[in-house]
Structures are given as C-alpha cells and as structure tokens.
Amino acid sequence: MAPRALLIGLDCAPPSLVFERWADHLPHLSALRARGRWGPLRSCMPPITVPAWTCMVSGRDPGELGLYGFRNRPRDRGYDLRVASAKDVKVKRVWDRLGEAGHTAAALFVPLSWPPTPLRGWMVSGFLTPDAAKPWAFPRALKAELEARFGPYRVDVADFRGGDLARVFDELHAMTAQHFAMARHVWTEKRPGFLMMVEMGPDRLHHAAWQHLDPAAPGYVPGNPWEARARGYYAALDAEIGRLLAETDEETLVLVASDHGARAMEGAVAVNEVLRRAGWLVLREEPREPTRLREVIDWGRTKAWGEGGYYARIFLNVAGREPAGALPASEAEAARDAIAALLEEAGPAGTRVWRPEALYGTVRGQPPDLLAVFADLAWRAEGSVGHASALLEGEAIRGPAGSKLDGANHAWDGIGIVAGPGVTPGRWEGAELWDVGRTVLEAFGVEAGAGWRGRDLRSAGR
Which of 144, 140, 114, 138 lies closest to 126, judged by CA? Predict the structure, then answer.
C-alpha cells in the first residue's frame, strides 16, 4: 500500500496551551500525543510565519531562502519593503520532492503559497492571497469546486487587531470550520498521498487577545470572559482536527506542528529613537507625536535605520549601495559593530544582536545588516519616531495614532506531534522546525537532497 501522511499546521500554537494549560480541553491532540512522539519545536530566526513555514517545508534557513520576514528589500535596495510571495521561493518544497518521486500532494493554506504554483496534486494559497476573487487554487478548477461546496473562500480574519473581539471570534470559528471542511474534502475525494494544511486561527487569536488569556500578560484579569472564549476556540479547533483524523487509518502518518509559539508582549524598543539619539538617523523635522519613520526621515543624512516588528532589522544607508546612501562604504563594518553594541546597551535584558552572515552562514537576497530581538522576545521592535523614551511600555507600545495594539509577541518554541507507523512513542527534546519536512520525506522513502536540514522525528534519536 502506498504511504499516506497528513500534516496539520497550527500557526503560533504554543506548548504552554496545547501541552499544558488547556490539554484537558483538547482530547484529539492529547490522544495523538499519547500514541506518538511530541515536544517543543524550535523555530528559526526570525520566529515568524514568513519565513518559518517555508523553512519547515524546504529544509533551508532564512538566509538560504533570502527571506528575512513578511516584507523584504527589493533587488534595487530601495527604501520601501516588498511583501514576499511564492515567486520568492527558489527552492523545492516537500510537495515538489514528493511529486518528483511519483507521489501526489495537497498544500492547503500554507503561508507563502500565493500565487499557487503547479504541483503533482492540489493547492489552495494561504493568507497572503490578496483577494478571494483571484485564482487561488491549482488546478484552477479546484477553486470553483470548493466554492460550490463551501462558499466564498475565507482567506483570513479581517482587522484581527482592531479591538472588536466578538467579531474576531465569530470570524475565527467560521474560517477554521471552512478550512477544515475543505481539507477533509480534498483528503477524501482527491486522496493525495500527502496533505499539508496550515490554520492561521491560533495566530489571529493570540495577537487579538493574548492579554486576556495569559496570566503573565500586563493587564490580565482572572476569569475574564475572553479567556473562556479563547479556550472554546481551541476546543473547537481540536474537534475539527478530530473530524479530519476520523478520515485517516492506522497506516497514516499524522503530524501536527506550529511554526513558533506566543508569549506576553511586555514592552517595545523604539529602535529608530535609539539610532537617532546616537546620531545614526536624522529627521527632516522634529515630530510632535509618535510618527511613522518614512514621513519624517532625511535619507540623505541618515547612516542607519531600523524596521520594527516582533524583531528588529537594521539597515545601513551605504553610499553607492542605497539610493541616497550617507555612510561611506569603508565605515560599514565599524558601523555594524557600533550599532550592535548600542542596541545591546539600550535594550532590556535578554537583547541579542546578530550579523546575518554569522547567524545563517549562507546569505541570499537583500539581507539586513543586523537582526535583533529584545528581552528574549518579551519586547518587540517599534519603528516609529517621536517617542519620549526609546523604551515603551503600556499604551505607548501601540505606536503612532491609528496603530492597533498587539496582544502577543512570538516565542521560540512551537509544538510538534508525530503519530503513526514507525513512531516510537515518547517526548522529544531538541527538535527543530525543519525536522518536520525531513520526517515526511523519510516516511515516503524520498531522498531530501543536498542541503536539506533536519532529522526524522519518528525515532527516539531525537
């Protein structure tokens, strides 16, 4: 019998909820753990959706992929960042390798799958799909087939940081139910040898409401109603997983994985405030309130600037490299050393700064000159300027007027579970996200090829 494998991705699902606090409310995931191997799954740097899922299914790190976040510098090294797409993925992914070996595969809702690319099987592009009216499926006929059965494709939850939590929860339940219904349809009607789906619901929940469900979060109120609703969403998610698992048999290899975890957002470092107070960044005018950097920056006099997010990226404005470069190329290496030391001194305890070539080895695309995380991801990076302090807490974390308050930062560890034939039950330690893709290929007896990271999670060797 030809092998079959099912990989259920749960974006941002953390061990603290799935393995600990809410485990008793998740009977299907707990049953998988009881008969399989499981444990934390260490993410990449940066531990964010793009590039983490692509790392998982390609066996490459972000430097090898040339993908350093959702948005990346263009080839001409202009100052505006460009949203990544499937066109930026230049390596083979799990479904490509399986197809070359004669196996069929389905890739559903996987981040960085827009626009959908041909494969020996079926694809529904993920949450970066710009419009549900676009051709989001391969083959194209699959779009009409799924819409006829399940209605318009719910690509994502709109404005999930917007504060209307009742609406967010309603949309979360509807989106997750539709995605799993589509996955069951493809699994049972198309019968791919391998099916991977990624559900973004947990990520949207955490960024909308983590402050209501984590006792360690600033402002958490015990017994608040949103905590119960969040637990109810996870229970509904587990029930959907159970319905999909009911369509498998004992010979199916089942994997569950997340790309990173979640943790409380305790503060933010205004990286461009740090840079301008040290003379690296110059503004055209002094802002009267928190202001987006590009509204006031003087590119011709700025030697370095930063991009905010759950981590920081620092770019040097090098003469002859950037359009309005102000830093002599001969000073670039010394500038990197100085700015790294500056960030480590200015940031909270647990701040770490890397050069990309030291972090990754191979560096492709247009990398930042430095990457940083603050307080071991308890603090994020804020890119705006005009703050009274470079260290932001409370409402100041929100940033410029109109910005949405984020409930969570990311954490290094996601979850991993593997159950089925050839699996030695027990808990693992030291697993990494690229082990997931390697495990799938090993289960099908497919050679990963040179440069593919990871180890087989099915055995006790991990």
Answer: 114
Among the listed residues 366, 372, 376, 318, the one whose alpha carbon sits nearest the alpha carbon of residue 342: 372
Helices (H), 62-219: 62-65, 94-100, 141-150, 165-185, 201-213
Tokens of 169: 């929860």
173-213 pLDDT, tens per residue?
999 999 999 999 999 999 999 999 999 999 999 999 999 99
Q: Which of 22, 58, 147 is nearest to 448 (CA)?
A: 58
Domain 4-264+411-443: CATH superfamily is: Alkaline Phosphatase, subunit A (3.40.720.10)
Please check whether residue 103 is in contact with residue 120, taking contact to mean a CB–CB distance below 8 angstroms.
Answer: yes
Q: Which two tokens stand for residue 379?
A: 């603090």
Break the chain into its structural domains and give their ranges. 4-264+411-443, 267-405
Rg (alpha carbons) of the chain, rounded to whole number: 22
Q: Which residues fall within 8 angstroms of residue 47, CB to CB, at 6 or more apart?
A: 259, 260, 261, 310, 311, 377, 410, 411, 412
pLDDT reported for residue 461: 63
The whole-number pLDDT of residue 401 equals 64
Sequence letter at residue 440: V
Question: How far is the C-alpha of 192 from the C-alpha of 105, rounded, in Å?
Answer: 5
List, as one string, the DSSP characters of 107-118.
Answer: EEEETT-PSP--
What is the length of the chain?
A: 462
pTM of the model: 0.97
Q: Encode pLDDT of 318-327 as tens digits.
A: 999 999 999 9
- Contact present, 461 and 429 (Cβ < 8 Å): no
